[in-house]
Amino acid sequence: MANQDFEERQQTQELGYDPNFVPDSVKSFVVHLYRHIREKNVYEIHQMYESSFQTLSERLFKDTPWPSVDAVAHYVDNDHVFCLLYREMWFRHLYARLTPTLRQRIDSWDNYCSLFQVVLHGVVNMQLPNQWLWDMVDEFVYQFQSFCQYRAKMKNKTEQEIALLRQFDQAWNVYGVLNFLQALVEKSTIIQILDQEKEGLEQFTATDGYDYNGGSNVLKVLGYFSMVGLLRVHCLLGDYHTGIKCLLPIDISQQGVYTSVIGSHITTIYHYGFANLMLRRYVEAIREFNKILLYIFKTKQYHQKSSQYEQILKKNEQMYALLAICLSLCPQSRLVDETVNSQLREKYGEKMARMQRYDDEAFAIYDELFSYACPKFITPSAPSFEEPLVNYNQDAYRLQLKLFLYEAKQQQLLSGVRTFLKVYSTISLAKLASYMEVDEPTLRTILMTYKHKTHAVDSDGKITSNADVDFYIDDDTIHVVESKPAKRYGDYFLRQIVKLEGVINEMDGIKLD
């Protein structure tokens, strides 16, 4: 422990950082933030949180942590809850700008435990911006993921680090993380609130979760965002069914509080789409990726000054890669908007053509795109402290990649079947068997496999089809049923109307002599 404290002191000295020095601008920041929180002035809190905190971080604390909580506590009447909120921001800044030590990771866990205990069991009379409440849940899950990755790299751990890991074996424990998120969902009664809203008995979405009757939005909105947090944690663990189940109370076909914060919107759809991809619900994944990619395309310029802009762009690229995978395994381009489709062709057109061949090169591309776009999977179990120490941080990723490629390879059989079915409206089993150079019993097996692989069970337990070409067999003859996409003329006419209006406006502006 002494060595760990010495390591942190050395780190701060090397950076020329004095945790007890509070610049006047920071003093002013905490005093004003404290006052606005007490007055429930959500607009001002949001401005300070989103703008002032980022500006001060950039100007004064680019490579160092903020002043310690002990140094600022007396400026805010040693208010316990404010100090927990300040430390939450302090650790988030540390994770973003520096590499936290093991002791700091453990301290951050303790701070989240204290903060969530106050929210769950105390009387919290605050209104905080949705952005901050989302960031709390988002960072909580991120730090859990980061800790699991850090702990799994056992090879180069020092004796002090191993001793600390043994001593604090409950820090960032997977059950602790899941229990906090689940407790926030249950204590907030958010599921019942959303049910009552459908019957017109509650107003949650209409007010973006804020309470305009003098109450607090903190527990309700944290409970709401915790459902997204649970989806994300279960995806990191590879439990996609449970992840989607946790998100069911939120109707993602509609606008909601999750869409009020861009980070929450993107995280929700990215993990929901990825979970559906892994469950072979390709149509649902394509539909949701298409909607969010179109939304980002139309709105990303408004987020250029946001601290999350780079993250938005990265997730945007990853979701294009996942969409390319979905459309290669389930060619349903009719579900994709023209704008998204042209972006997709620009980025992955050539690779998607190669992925259709199902040879070694195609599987290498599937591997490349999956590895680039998948979440950073984790192994939540504690490490073995026995010698020799080994790294196991890649184990979960390798397992998920193996399962995904196994699924992609099974599609190889189906590509041949799909090609023939697209050409014929009826064909005898014997004729198709001779074309595919297999005997009839083998062809029947392949056709059963096609049926199985192009159908999936949705969240309601209903069997849904992903197939663009379906068939039935009657009297040893295959009858093909091709789904004819409904032609959409609306978009085309709207674009032409906008063009015409532009021309008319230009003509109106021309002055004739």
Automatic annotation (TrEMBL):
The record's section on PROSITE patterns has:
PCI (PS50250)
GO-annotated cellular components: eukaryotic 43S preinitiation complex; eukaryotic 48S preinitiation complex; eukaryotic translation initiation factor 3 complex
Q: List, for all copies, the residue spans of the domain called PCI.
A: 288-487
Q: What is the annotated localization of this protein?
A: Cytoplasm
The coiled-coil segments of this chain are none
A biological process term (GO) from this entry: formation of cytoplasmic translation initiation complex
Q: Which UniProt keywords apply?
A: Cytoplasm, Initiation factor, Protein biosynthesis
> Which family would the database say this protein is a member of?
Belongs to the eIF-3 subunit L family.
Cited function: Component of the eukaryotic translation initiation factor 3 (eIF-3) complex, which is involved in protein synthesis of a specialized repertoire of mRNAs and, together with other initiation factors, stimulates binding of mRNA and methionyl-tRNAi to the 40S ribosome. The eIF-3 complex specifically targets and initiates translation of a subset of mRNAs involved in cell proliferation.
Record's protein name: Eukaryotic translation initiation factor 3 subunit L
The organism encoding this protein is Phaseolus vulgaris (Kidney bean)
